[in-house]
From TrEMBL:
Record bears the keyword Transmembrane helix: yes
Protein name (database record): MBOAT family protein
Membrane topology value: Multi-pass membrane protein
Subcellular localization(s) per the UniProt record: Cell membrane
GO biological process, one term: alginic acid biosynthetic process
Transmembrane segments: 39-64, 99-119, 125-145, 157-179, 233-250, 330-348, 354-372, 393-413, 455-473, 494-512
Length: 524
């Protein structure tokens, strides 16, 4: 049951009807039943893995809560006869017990994920990677850590925890939700509102357009060049990397739009996962705009705990008299950032190329932070000398293009078969690049065998420019295009909606002879 399929559409519509037919207090049961049924249909017996995660998540959070309440009760009962040190020692002993429970849950779930994802022996046993395991593991373990930190109260109802872990729209490719932002919405019975249905449907349509019209057409170029990248000039290797940047964004954000749109029709607002990332003026800003829920998860549960740990704080103190205030303040956080990006890289797969992907992003951001004072002085001198404004159009365009090139280098490791090929592709893109080869006739001549003709290339360019224009307006006017469409008069509103449907039906890349591409992030 693919995300873009008639079966899935019928499933969602049927579940919507059931959801709004039930009394409000029982509507979350409909979501739970639908979510588990969906997972069983697409994963069969692999549902046992998500059931294991549900059980360990529920059990560990309840156990942690019981240990904490027992500790607090005993401390309170000895308020008069225990001195401060005794209370401190007892609390530390209790904390270690709670840490042990939390670590048990983390090791069990991340251990299973690591075994299935990174150990070749798992494949020999015939074990495939269960759909969405990375997403629901990260989400549920984030909840366990939040309970340990006393950020949220543990949910006592086992079935409600099951719904939080398995909510069907996001199970395929996220977004990764934080418990206190999503759980309450899942358990609340939402009223039927026309606005939710309209805005949700528009977001689904927008996601389908990006996937079928842009991503599934662009992937042909990438597959064709990456099949034998050394057979092409550096120009076309670079061109394939640029097309990959477009295809990945259209594919992933399109899928997330569909997920968020479906959730919105149920009255549930899911976290935004993309905020026009290719308009970023630095690599740091890009990672605050791209796959935002994974970035938030890594910051909350890896970067911040590392950067404020005793070891890192002591390292900063050791640096200060030797290297100055700036280095002592920035370097520990930079090292924590590099470690975080290594985790992000390894999360993508068991291949050295993903390690290099993480290292590239982490090291570039680290160097930018370390040399920030120097960069600021150089940039200030340049703007003073030229009379240009620091936040003017020229500076913005240069910053955005430079950032995109840094992003693109990371993508070479993503699309190459291995790290060695990625380095060769980068070298070739620099030493064998010829701008004259980027004419549309040359592209068709050299890449025509990929299955796209002049019409497809032209359509891809037009749709990309249209998407860029819409994104530019949303970015600069802080406008939600759905609100804009729904605020128009009825004839214009429906004209825009029908135009979108027409574009999907007429220009979508599907039908006889077309092998539809899976969503990229389904593999994680």
């Amino acid at each position: 049951m693919e995300l873009i399929s008639l079966k899935y559409a019928i499933f969602v519509i049927a579940l919507l009807v059931l959801y709004y037919c039930f009394p409000k207090k029982y509507r979350w049961y409909v979501l739970l039943a639908g979510s588990m049924a969906y997972y069983v249909i697409i994963c069969k017996w692999y549902v046992l893995f998500i059931i294991f995660t549900i059980c360990t998540t529920y059990g560990s959070t309840i156990w942690i809560d019981k240990l904490l309440k027992k500790q607090n009760a005993i401390v309170k009962s000895h308020k008069e006869d225990w001195d401060r040190q005794t209370r401190k020692d007892y609390k530390e002993k209790g904390r270690k017990k709670r840490v042990a429970v939390m670590l048990f849950a983390l090791l069990c779930n991340f251990g299973i994920l690591a075994f299935l994802k990174y150990i070749p022996y798992a494949g020999e046993l015939g074990l495939l990677l269960p759909l969405g395991i990375s997403f629901y593991t990260f989400q549920s373990m984030g909840y366990v850590m939040d309970v340990y930190r006393e950020i949220v109260e543990p949910e006592k109802n086992f079935l409600k925890v099951a719904l939080f872990v398995s909510f069907f729209p996001q199970i395929i490719q996220g977004p990764i939700a934080i418990y206190d932002k999503l759980a309450g919405q899942l358990y609340e019975g939402h009223s039927l509102r026309l606005e939710n249905l309209q805005k949700g449907a528009l977001l689904v349509l927008w996601g389908v357009m990006k996937k079928l019209v842009i991503a599934d057409r662009a992937v042909n170029i990438i597959n064709f060049v990456m099949d034998k990248p050394m057979d092409f000039s550096g120009t076309y290797v670079f061109f394939a990397a640029v097309v990959y940047a477009l295809q990945l964004y259209a594919d992933f954000s399109g899928g997330i739009d569909i997920v968020r749109g479906i959730a919105e029709m149920f009255g549930i607002t899911m976290s935004t996962n993309f905020n026009h990332p290719y308009f970023s003026r630095s690599l740091t800003e890009y990672w605050h705009r791209w796959h935002m829920t994974l970035g938030d998860w890594c910051r909350n549960y890896i970067f911040y705990p590392l950067s404020i740990s005793k070891r890192f704080l002591n390292f900063g103190k050791w640096l200060k008299p030797r290297f100055g205030a700036h280095i002592s303040k920035v370097l520990p956080g930079c090292i924590a950032s590099v470690i975080t990006f290594i985790v992000i890289g390894v999360w993508h797969g068991a291949n050295m190329k993903y390690l290099y992907f993480g290292l590239w992003n982490g090291i570039v951001i680290m160097l930018a932070e370390l040399f920030a004072p120097v960069n600021k002085k150089v940039a200030g001198g340049f703007f003073k000398l030229t009379g240009l404004r620091e936040k003017g159009i020229f500076a913005t365009i240069v910053s955005v293009l430079w950032t995109f090139m840094l992003i693109l280098v990371g993508y070479y490791f993503d699309i190459a078969a291995n790290a060695s090929t990625a380095f060769h592709m980068l070298f070739k893109s620099v030493t064998d690049f010829h701008i004259s080869e980027l004419g549309i006739n040359n592209i068709i001549l050299n890449l025509g065998a990929c299955g796209l003709d002049e019409y497809d290339i032209l359509l891809l360019i037009i749709c990309t420019l249209l998407w860029f224009f819409i994104s530019f307006v949303e970015e600069n006017k802080k406008l939600d295009m759905r609100d804009f469409i729904l605020s128009r008069k009825l004839p214009l509103r429906w004209a825009i909606i029908y135009l979108g449907i027409f574009i999907v039906i007429i220009f979508g890349y599907y039908g006889p002879g077309v092998n539809p591409a899976d969503f990229v992030y389904m593999q994680f």
